[in-house]
Design a protein that fits this description.
heterodimer, A: 457 residues, 11 strands, B: alpha/beta, globular
């Protein structure tokens, strides 16, 4: 039979037992729906995690440190270390050089210093961190109280919520108030002409040491503009979590003494210019991170990225999806039994009709194809209906989750997603499974003895 | 003029069934020749094996031994696919209980063999109309079988058997479910078809008077054996 005649007859047969076939199709739909709902959750959660992580800047960033920083305890006592070329200082020149590399969006230093603030006449010790303008687009500031800094050079502060609670348990009342930042400004002494003239001077010679710096206490008034849950990229590449965030540009102009300043003096830095403890390099995307990391290492700096962690995350979600898929498939397996049952029933019911078709010249193949197409059509409709149902279940779960998150005063999230590949994959899978379920009934119908079938009443 | 190649040649055909430990000889060493264009009535009581013999000629069943030849084709050598093609193109079948598909209209029922034979869709309406006109049902194309009388249903079944223009028509008790007047009209129709289209007809019946009136030849079966071998009357 030609495909069109075959599908004509198949649709006619399906319409004939509309209730039973609809129920079977619905069974397939529920099976597909459970599969789609499970996988859409897997995909949605993965997208959510990736989005949050990419917003956090962890996966498109390279953290650059002076090479000496990478010498850990495993490197052995100083006497056994292979004398390498003089470590390049991570200063403004280095920053500019890195910023000129391809695929680099921005390079900013980590400025963190431990200091004291005064609020309402009382002193509080805290860690201050400089925030680049780009941090605004990271997800961390999404649900904040108040607002982000009005400009890159505004004398404003954002408090980390735990710290804010120390100042005033009613954190919302802090926004708009003033606090005083007390810090130690680093003032350079007269540079040693010898050391600036020669880069390869012996660092053990006291004569070649830079002049060091003096520390002068200073004060600055800041207006609190917001309160945020956590500092973005907290605890990575810096020295402790920042609890008082100020614009990076403001932090740089403070010239506050940082941890690495003292260390540089002790290690005998070869440049009189202030150096950075570390630089954060933001790449255009995670794909360019690897090459960028290698280039920066070749320039003589230590470089580190979290790309490996992101790979593990992908593996985790693949396994997670697989497990969800297996659970989702269970319902589809039950639906498969439904298709087999319906078609076997149809053979009994249409026994005589099969006999007539064979007497009129239908080949075994024609009868087999007819049952096959009927199974496939149920799979097709069940697949489409199932994807729709699965999408609805995913939406319902997202809605329920958001109601819960809203009650906990947390921002809403989208935890389910039905991308095109899932839609097409689920429908194809549904058809494939239905065809497999139709195999046995179809071959049984095809094998039917026409003489016996015609005698059947 | 004797035809050197009979339309149907049955040679020492047997069809045995096993039921438990018993072997039933439904057809037992039957030989029969039917020249082309003739009307054979196969007579016998219930269980005599006449329907089994008809099914063997129709290619719906295969003999246990012996050979069935139709228009020079040896059915025993055919694959099941070739047998299906034989049923589509060489023979047409009519049954006692009409065997029309109840949910299809008359037109769709008659079109069914054309679908199976993969006849072009554009050619089908004319072929269906031609077949229905031949049996006098051209006005009832849109009706379902349940809306027709028994005689009309059997006419429709004849139209369906003719639509692929076969050379042989096989009828299994075509008047069995009809009153005598209607039965007669169906047999008249069959004889007209035989005369006008030159078809070879084998009809199974147990109604001797009708067979006497309409058939060219009679063959009588009992207990799977042929008592008279269908000589011309």
């Amino acid at each position: 039979m030609k495909p069109r005649d075959l599908s004509d007859l198949a649709f006619r047969n399906l319409r004939e037992a509309i209730l039973r076939n609809s129920l079977t199709t619905l069974g397939v739909a529920v099976g597909v729906a459970s599969l789609v709902a499970m996988l859409s959750l897997g995909v949605g959660l993965q997208q959510l995690a990736s989005k949050r992580l990419s917003q956090s800047g962890l996966f498109d960033s390279v953290f650059v440190t002076p090479k000496t920083n990478l010498r850990g305890p495993g490197s052995g006592p100083p006497a056994t270390r292979v004398p390498t070329a003089v470590a390049r200082p991570l200063d403004e020149d280095a920053r500019a050089e890195i910023a000129r590399l391809p695929n680099v969006i921005e390079v900013y230093p980590q400025i963190r210093f431990f200091t004291e603030v005064r609020y309402d006449g009382k002193p509080f010790a805290t860690m201050v961190a400089g925030m680049p303008e780009s941090a605004k687009s990271s997800g961390s500031f999404d649900g904040m109280q108040g607002a982000f800094f009005s400009s890159a050079s505004a004398n404003e502060a954002i408090l980390q919520s735990e710290f804010a609670k120390e100042l005033n348990p009613q954190t919302s009342s802090l926004v708009g108030k003033e606090l005083v930042l007390r810090y130690a400004e680093r003032q350079a002494l007269a540079p040693n002409p010898k050391s600036s003239a020669s880069n390869n001077s012996d660092s053990t010679n006291p004569e070649s040491l830079p002049g060091g710096f003096s520390v002068v206490p200073k004060e600055m008034s800041l207006r609190i503009v917001g309160v945020v849950e956590t500092e973005p990229a907290a605890g990575f590449g810096g020295y402790g979590n920042g609890r008082l965030l100020i614009p990076l540009q403001v932090a740089m102009t403070l010239r506050a003494a940082q941890v690495n300043d003292l260390r540089d003096i002790v290690r005998g830095a070869t440049s009189s210019k202030p150096t950075f403890a570390s630089l954060t390099v933001r790449a255009k995307g995670p794909s360019s991170v690897e090459a960028l990391e290698a280039t920066i290492k070749n320039m003589g700096f230590g470089a580190f990225s979290l790309l490996d962690a992101s790979k593990s995350l992908r593996i985790f979600f693949s396994v997670f999806d697989l497990l969800l898929g297996i659970f989702g498939s269970l319902a589809l397996a039950v639906a498969t039994l439904g298709i087999i049952n319906t078609l076997v029933m149809a053979i009994l019911e249409r026994r005589r009709e099969i006999g007539i078709l064979k007497a009129l010249g239908a080949a075994d193949r024609d009868v087999k194809q007819l049952f096959f197409v009927e199974a496939g059509v149920m799979g097709l409709f069940g697949g489409f209906l199932g994807v729709g149902l699965g999408w609805l279940i995913g939406r319902a779960l997202t809605f329920g989750t958001n109601v819960y998150l809203h009650r906990q005063s947390l921002p809403g999230v989208d935890i389910s997603s039905v991308p095109w590949w899932l839609f097409l994959g689920a429908v194809s899978f549904s058809i494939l499974v239905s065809l497999a379920a139709g195999l046995y009934p179809a071959s049984r119908a095809a094998r039917l003895d026409p003489v016996a079938a015609l005698r059947y009443e | 003029m004797p035809d050197s190649q009979p339309a149907i040649r049955v040679e020492h055909v047997s069809r045995h069934y096993t039921m438990g430990s018993a072997v039933i000889h439904a057809v037992n060493d039957v030989s029969l020749d039917l020249p082309a264009g003739e009307f054979l009535a196969l007579l016998g009581s219930s269980g005599s094996g006449k329907s089994t013999l008809l099914n063997l000629i129709a290619g719906l069943d295969r003999p246990t031994s012996g050979a069935v030849n139709a228009l020079g084709q040896d059915l025993s050598k055919m694959s099941s696919l070739e047998l299906a093609r034989y049923r589509r193109q060489t023979v047409g079948m009519v049954f006692q209980s009409f065997n029309l598909l109840p949910r299809m209209t008359l037109e769709e029922n008659v079109e069914l063999p054309l679908r199976l034979a993969e006849v072009d869709r554009t050619d089908r309406p004319a072929r269906v109309r031609e077949a229905l006109e031949r049996v006098g049902l051209a006005q009832r194309v849109g009706h379902r079988p349940s809306e027709l009388s028994g005689g009309e249903q059997q006419r429709a079944a004849v139209a369906r058997a003719l639509v692929n223009r076969p050379k042989i028509l096989l009828a299994d008790e075509p008047t069995g479910n009809l009153d005598s007047a209607t039965g007669e009209s169906i047999l008249t129709l069959l004889r007209d078809i035989q005369k006008n289209l030159g078809m070879t007809i084998v009809m199974v019946t147990h109604e001797r008077p009708l067979a006497d009136r309409f058939a060219d030849r009679l063959a009588v079966m009992a207990d799977g054996k042929l008592l008279s071998n269908g000589a011309a009357r």
